[in-house]
Amino acid sequence: MCCNSFRNNPTVKVLHSMEKDTLLKSFGVSYIDLKGDTIIHINKRTSCFLQPLVKSNKGETNYFRLKLNKDKNTVYMIDSILSVGKIWYNSRTTGIIIPIIKYQNVDDFSTTGEIQYFNTDKLLSDCIEKNLENSEAVCFNNSGLFCLYMSADTLFTYNIATKEKKSIFTFNNPMMYSVELKLKNNILTLIYYSNFVEDFSDLNPAKVINFEYQE
User: Fold this and answer.
1) N or C of the chain: less Cβ packing under 10 Å?
2) CB atoms near residue 77 (< 10 Å)
3) Ordered domains of the chain (ranges, CATH)
């Protein structure tokens, strides 16, 4: 359908940027405190379960398994996850996007991962991005037909129906780490660190930048 395609090239325009007041979190650490099994309720019929695979008494980061259950049956599962960012659900399309960190470099804190998509109605999955770099920042657009995400220093849009990916903004900063992305009233907000090595070591505050987003 034409509504699922890029009718016009999506664009963003920088409105303003500022620093956050406080440090958000350490890199590569889940936004969920995984001391045990954790349940995230997606909708009335679907829940996300996060289960640590290794029990550690040394405070080390555990790998864990992510399962999506619908009507108490497991319909989707991912193993060997180091961290998961904010999980988004769109009620219009019944789609879920899950940013995953699979590996973190112990020397410079850089991360690699992927973005997984799952439709809870059709029970279909897709890997939106197989090489997610230094980011866990993803969100849906207003219609739920596109995924917006940061990877390395570039902002992308992904058409879920056609699997078409487009780059719409580049920061030209290979040291940035993106934490959160959200879209409201055509204002796209990104929370990020401008230098993940220095910011993590010195506990520097994160930065916020707002874009005007149009399709």
Assistant:
1) N
2) 12
3) 2-214 (2.120.10)
